[in-house]
């Protein structure tokens, strides 16, 4: 059993990215979006708070400020050690939060036309995300570095999730018509 490092998943993610190269908070948030999409989001304000805490703990150090007041950070030896320990810890159970599912649960309290608008908007969002993930897949598919496989693996989950969600959204109206309810069990 490994000892707990005290790093939360966001801090561990930031250290993992900084283990590759120095980055600004802005770059870290963007790179997280590319790597794990909507499965682990980091807000810019959250990234900067985490970077400040990581710096206070000696896990990262700020480099000289660049253009437009952007400050890159780099991982320290202590940060690399903490990151490698965190990487081996058992992750907590995932918590899936789908705000649209709450609308589905209570859709009988809203006009059907409005629900249909929300459904169409959800379909567009997931179709756009799938297109983006598939584009990232094509761009990364030729990456034969040691990091290429893990990047594709995380992207594969995103693609599968978006395809599954789009299928569910397509079946969703059938759940509300008693005669045509899908058989998913």
Automatic annotation (TrEMBL):
The Transcription regulator PadR N-terminal domain extends over 14-83
- The residues covered by the Transcription regulator PadR C-terminal domain are 96-171
State the Pfam families in the record: PadR, Vir_act_alpha_C
Domain of life of the native organism? Bacteria
Q: Which InterPro entries would you find in this protein's record?
A: Tscrpt_reg_PadR_C, Tscrpt_reg_PadR_N, WH-like_DNA-bd_sf, WH_DNA-bd_sf
Q: Which PANTHER family match?
A: TRANSCRIPTIONAL REGULATOR YQJI, TRANSCRIPTIONAL REGULATORY PROTEIN
Put simply, this protein is called PadR family transcriptional regulator
Q: Which organism is it from?
A: Paramicrobacterium chengjingii
Q: Which lineage ranks, top first, belong to the organism behind this chain?
A: Bacteria, Bacillati, Actinomycetota, Actinomycetes, Micrococcales
């Amino acid at each position: 059993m490994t000892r707990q490092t005290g790093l939360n998943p966001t801090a561990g993610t930031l250290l993992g990215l900084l283990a590759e190269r120095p980055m600004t908070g802005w770059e870290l948030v963007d790179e997280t979006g590319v790597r794990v999409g909507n499965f682990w989001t980091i807000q810019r304000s959250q990234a900067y708070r985490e970077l400040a805490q990581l710096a206070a703990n000696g896990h990262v150090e700020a480099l000289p400020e660049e253009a437009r007041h952007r400050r890159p950070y780099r991982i320290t030896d202590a940060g690399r050690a903490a990151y490698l320990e965190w990487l081996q810890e058992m992750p907590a159970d995932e918590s899936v939060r789908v705000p649209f599912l709450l609308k589905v649960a209570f859709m009988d309290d809203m006009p059907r036309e409005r629900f249909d608008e929300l459904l169409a908007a959800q379909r567009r969002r997931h179709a756009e995300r799938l297109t983006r993930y598939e584009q990232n897949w094509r761009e990364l598919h030729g990456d034969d570095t040691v990091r290429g496989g893990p990047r594709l693996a995380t992207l594969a989950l995103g693609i599968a999730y978006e395809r599954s969600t789009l299928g569910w959204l397509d079946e969703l109206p059938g759940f509300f018509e008693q005669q045509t309810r899908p058989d998913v069990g």
